[in-house]
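Hey, sorry to bother you again with one of my protein questions. I've been staring at a protein lately and its backbone has me curious. I owe you a coffee for this, so here goes:
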Amino acid sequence: MSKGTILIVEDDASVRRGIVDALEFSGYLTLEAQNGEEGIALGLRANYQLMLLDLVMPKCSGFEVLGALKKSRAGQPVIILSARGEEADRVRGLQAGADDYVVKPFSVKELIARVEAVMRRSCERVAEDETLRFASGSVDHTLGMLRFSDGRTVEISPREVDLLRYLIRSAGRAVSREELLLHVWRLDARGMETRTIDMHIAHLRTKLGDSSQTMIVTVRGKGYRWSVLWKMFFGHGESPSCVPCSALQLWAGCPVMLWGWNERIIRHDTKKNMPKKFASLCGAWNLKLVPFCF
């Protein structure tokens, strides 16, 4: 059974290989990036529990990688691995959001001990400024409930919170049942047949009011995907007065605008016919359709 996935961002191939071997021998899965640009791309896209980050790399420095990561995944645990052991560098790294700072050279025992310590501290941690949002509300981590924009609340289990968080963080890509078992249930899915994932997804859809499956989409032969479309407009905590919804226009077949953030109004062009699927989508997201001439 895997202890979790760790992303290693290190430009020195021999050092990276040694770290990967040590981690895999200790029961971890690994992902690798050989420079700063790859580190940012993989760090923002992949699913993992901890990043090990070198500071001196080509294309982007470790500090640049850390800065980009913390803007989008503020609660992501990071351990800096660097030959730069000066106090100023250590302080800068920790102040930038790193959970630990290990100076090279280090022993395998020290590295594994520090990894396990950070993993223990972070396994139940949710970033203070992270808000999980869905189309018509948000998730209250502390009380374990869904809060809807119309004032309703629905209880949600800790496992359902973890499942919802993983899906939202993976928005736009299909997540397999095996991946969910590994990262949410901490179970090795190899050779395992279970309907646990499907049952939890069904319960989540019911609690979210997602009967049309526009939020949690079933991807045949692959798993489930959290719809990226609504996240473009509701997933970042912004409050604009109006936003041109170019991506939604592809579905609507006519110009549309998100107008009045708090009122959750979609204004659409009256001169164009709107597909029933788009109208159904807006209904599922608790959005009001209002005619408007552009």
The chain has three domains: 5-122, 133-229, 239-292. Confidence is low (pLDDT under 50) at residues 230-271. The longest strand covers residues 5-9.
